Amino acid sequence: MFIGIIVIAVIGLIIVLLLTGVGLYNSIVSLRNKTNNAWHQIDVQLRKRYDLIPNLVETVKGYAAHEKETLQSVVSARNFGINAKSVSEQAKAENQITSTLRSLFAVSERYPNLKADQHFLKLMEQLNGIESNIAYARQFYNDMVMKFNTRIQTFPGNVVAKMFQFTGKDYFEIEDKSVREPVKVSF
Known about the structure:
Elements: H1 2-63, H2 68-82, H3 87-109, H4 112-116, H5 118-153, H6 157-163, H7 177-180
Helix pairs in contact: 1-2, 1-5, 2-3
């Protein structure tokens, strides 16, 4: 009888451990899928921006044809972003695009007719909306990465993660230091 109780207890413990392992595995897979989905949402917004950039460049080109170097740098930054393969490459490309778009906006400041052009204004409005969507999607992605990485790095999830070779994800971080600085206001 005593041996029967021990056998039942061991079988019960094995079942509990198996169910816990299955639950952890499923939660890690779920978080990985949510993280991948969040990345795809960023990609959707980035593609919208990439599609908008040629129209923006063409509009500026009509007013500022001699600003060829600035326009070329915007186009090459866009191409770098389109061809990025990893999160870190994409982050680097997005920093480059942000920098070149700033140059493009600086060019537009020198041309009052361009700043008043309705097509240009509409493109700028669309770009602002896309930039807001990218910021939100980036925040959501980074939140999912944090949850996923935490799950696979803490016990007992790290045991399951190691068994099934789950690896951590990279954050989508801004490298441009000027974006992180507080806005300077002077009167």
